[in-house]
Amino acid sequence: MPGGREVTTQDVQTRKAEFARYLAECQARLYGYVHSLVPDLNHADDLYQQTVLVLWGKFAEFDRERSFFAWACGFARFEAANFVRGLARQRHFFSDELSLLLVEAHEEMADDELADRREALSKCVEKLSPTDRALLTECYLDPGGVPAAAARRNRSPHSVYNSLRRIRQTLLKCIIRALGG
Amino acid sequence: MTDPEPTNESLDALFDDYLNGLLDATRTRELEARLLADVEARRAFVRYTRLHTDLLLELRARKASDRALELIGQDLPAAARKSQREVRPPRRPLVQRLASWFAASAVLLLVVWGGWRIFGPRPANDEAVAWLVNAQNCSWTDGEPPGELRAGGAVRIDRGLADLRFRCGTRILVEGPAHLDLVSANSVRLRQGKLTARVPTDAIGFEVLSPQGKVIDLGTEFGISVAANGVTDVYVFEGQVEAYPEGKSGKLNLGERQAARIAAGRVTPTDSGPGQFVRNIVPSPVVTARRTKLTFDGPIDGTLRDRTGTGTGLTHRLPGTGETLAAHDEFLRLDAAGGRLELTATRSDLNTQYRLRRGEYLGVRLSDLGFTGPEDFEISAVFPEIPALDFIGQFGLYAGTRSDRAIRGGVLKLRKEGAEVYTQFLVNNPDGRDADLYEVGLLRPGTDLRLTLRREAGKYTLTVEDLTAGGASTLAIRHPDYLDPEPDLYVGLFAAEPRSDVGRKLFVKEFQATVWANSR
Fold first, then answer.
1. Is the whole-model pTM more than 0.80?
2. Which positions 263-282 of B are in contact with A (Cβ < 8 Å)?
3. Which of A97, B111, B441, B519 has a CB 3.0–4.6 Å from the CB of A27, allowing a cystine?
């Protein structure tokens, strides 16, 4: 059992602390990047965790002069491609070229903007009708996702996807308004 | 902020379907090409996917807050709870405060959780030993799925799959109906049901107890099933396990692709294969709409032709109908300028299979839309300004394999108390004769109608929308089970005057057929 594997050397502890600091700085962004490559909600968590484990394994090779986020995205991209390949007949995956350009687009978003968007979203979700909020919650959090939410409402999955789209558009507009853009 | 307003409709639709997992290869390539070409599109894409991520975190945080608040509520004395309910306003800010606190911390929590799993301390007795990480079609015997699982806890499912991840790295996939007790961080007891366990090398020694014995892992993946009488079957996919009968002696070592039964104090090798065990949760299939839509605003080559030889867009007649109609069908006229198809009702009736060689039952074949039998589908058409047909004159939509195996519905002309009215109807035709006729509601000539014949979750319904007055009703009848095994169906529209040769015209706009196909 794992009890015997406890590694306690001072070096490793220091390195973990440093890794945790780097990770803390870019975790929201990194999670967002992973999620933009693998939008399925159930997969993104798995992939994120897998990526973090890989990053920790490779951390010794990380060049402190470089951007941690860009370095991490390199591995995330690789992990995501493998991950998608492993899924039975999963969706199609973006080319390397586009995945790289998307790293730039993610990187370009300032920390402030990320935080402002999160905050605005929270308020905008509050403004949704209870029906829309309930539908959104079911689609995002229930294991059965959209098909299950549709079945419970006696609707076609297609019509629920349409509702989801309308709600996301409403939220997007609400966020833009809140940010004064 | 540099947000492009969400105006580019099709780009938005691509983003959305991307997030929903609905893009096929062609549309993925299209999205990719547009993102590669345009930095603004990439910015918009990143913000849209960011919304998706943030929304997930926000909703998780809200759910966590709600649960926490429920717990807080339970600790309050009854009187305080009552007054809290009555005075609602103070509660909201608390919810919001907590929610935004959770929201702000959600990403952090997630990472702390991940990091803690990597670097964290070893479990004390009251700490979670495992987590539910995934589930599919799961029905939980106790109502709610467990989140964290502690030693002494249990997982009970009536059906479905539950994926548990143990702190030591072991993954267990439980298939319902099953009852599993968590004994400790490296030991579970399967009372009944099936599971597969994948044990990483550093968790060697993980054990699964059963009513008749136990299995100790030596670094492997194996499946174990326990019947109601406690008889236990083991199968090793990879690596090695030790199988023990109840009591101490009689251990058997099993290697790759070996199986054994533990029963009556003994372990006996068997020949059973891996077939009964589920090793992975495979994501539910994505349902995609495959649709054909006809707007009758221009000729379409290679389709059923109207009286002038113009292709109408409709491709197939219901087999057993229309055999003697001319190739340039005199009862059809495509009015491209008006965006409608003019259809003249002929003297025919599916009921009793009357004069069907001249019957107008025309539409499309569902297999052309990827239909293979089990898929749901829907057809719809708009009939503007419905004309006054003669007695029992009828028009509407059908689905079936031939003229004497179909379901059809629409409106049927009747004379009630002297007034010229239509009633809505849906009827089965299992053998050439109408059965299970259901009639409801009254409509007047001149009304605009949209009819939709739908098979949803395998059940047929007809929806009649009165576009003039704004009402709608949905009809259902006894299920046409004679259509269930069919791998292909013809669907479309019809117009018939069983008792008249007058040949009145009606118009059709926007014919649409959709098949909800699974992408795997």
1. no
2. 282
3. B111
